[in-house]
Predict the structure of Probable fructose-bisphosphate aldolase class 1.
Amino acid sequence: MPADITALQEITKALVAPGKGILAADESLPTIEKRFKALGVESTEEERRAYRELLFTTPEIEKYISGIIMFDETLRLASLAQGKPAAKILEERGIIPGIKVDMGKVDFPGFPNEEFTQGLDGLGKRLEEYVGLGAQFAKWRVVIAISESSPTRPVLEANMTGLAIYAGFCQQAGLVPIVEPEVLMDGNHDIAKCAGVTKQMLEILFKKFFEYKIVPEASLLKVNMILPGKDSAQKASPEEVAKQTLETLKSAVSVAIPGIVFLSGGQSPLEATANLDAINKLASSVPWQLSFSYGRALQEPALVAWAGKVENVAFAQKKFLKRAKMNSVARDGKWEERMENERD
């Protein structure tokens, strides 16, 4: 049991405050190197610092962004803008600093093409250090692939157990845990298969929450929308995505969780916004705030506009602010595609 459950609940509510969502800026070194390389930018510490600074110092971003999930390197940097560390810069703007704490995926022995998220060893001490560096919430990601032979029950059980144990360590350390079980878009499965696997996964997760005495009121769920596989011939409209997603959530997610923040999971920035909007348009009398925690769907236009050039920073920040604003409108169910072409 956390020392101050009330304080964690307040942070949780602030992360899903009306009109706001979370920026996932926690790309691992190999991931950000891949994205930089596509733009001809070398992934040095200085370039990564410059890019994170671009995002974190965008004017007015605090209107739409409640929290930012960082990578270990970013949280540890001695300074960003104005000679201050990232957590300090964010706090001064009313944005809550967060940290990714899992240690990535490994192949699951005996289960081909399935993976397990590692990082539980030494987690308690790492969390204490992150709290000292200014983090107020954390994130742990699990990936579940769909194929003819997967996912299997043992792998689902193991990964959901890991999420629950991580959540317990977070709450004990005074951090709000975001649990992120993601059913991947990879594959040719249809939308019904995604719904079935996601429901099974979430049912196991909240069973583990109960078994491991996790306080759901001081936690957030980050999860995939219900979508057909990217190699499927099936195309789902935002309305169908919304219908399937809400039905799945209502059937499997604890009503005690204050909020659900969707991941973009391979969707384009526009698709992620349109689907979020459709979900919120359809959602009525649900017990959760339905928000966003996007990475590429928020960052991609800004990253392309920046391309590693100092003279492009202001333009890139406008692109970032635009996507944040569009998703803020979408989480209220008030987005229209024509808004994308309106000048701010």
Observations:
- The longest helix spans residues 153-173.
- The first strand starts at residue 21 and ends at 25.
- The chain has one domain: 5-341.
